[in-house]
Amino acid sequence: MPEITLTVHHKVGLHARPAALFVQTAKKFKSDITVTYGEREANAKSILKVLTLGVNQGAVITIRAEGEDAEAAATALIKILSREFVEE
Questions:
Q1: Who's near 5: CB < 8 A, 6+ residues apart?
Q2: How far apart are CA 64 and CA 10, in angstroms?
Q3: How many Cα neighbours within 13 Å face the side chain of 74?
Q4: Which end of the chain has fewer CB within 10 Å, C or N?
Q5: CB-hemisphere CA count at 13 Å for 14?
Q6: Contact, 6 vs 13, CB < 8 A?
Q7: How many CA atoms lie within 13 A of 38 on its CB side?
Q8: CB of 87 within 8 A of CB of 63?
Q9: pLDDT tens, 34-86?
């Protein structure tokens, strides 16, 4: 079960477009994926749950994946969070 802790660097945090792309990516995998921020935990495949975490720029989150494609899921989600998003 991969568990990765990282800092969110997006100026909007894990809100709006970054959150939508994060959830869309998580949904591509069969594994159970959770995101933890502070004392709160959310299903990474639920946009409402991810948004209610209130992850802002500079927040330290933990992504945990469990299942047959857990490694690939964790890698893909890390890539999403390391991208720079340009608001159009």
A1: 60, 61, 62
A2: 20
A3: 17
A4: C
A5: 31
A6: no
A7: 9
A8: no
A9: 999 999 999 999 999 999 999 999 999 999 999 999 999 999 999 988 875 54
Q: Buried (b) or exposed (e) across 15-32, using 16+ Cβ within 10 A?
A: beebbeebbebbeebebb
So what's the pLDDT on residue 75? 94
Report the catalytic residues: 15
Residue among 68, 30, 48 at smallest CA distance from 14: 48
Query: What's the length of the chain?
Result: 88
pLDDT of residue 82: 82
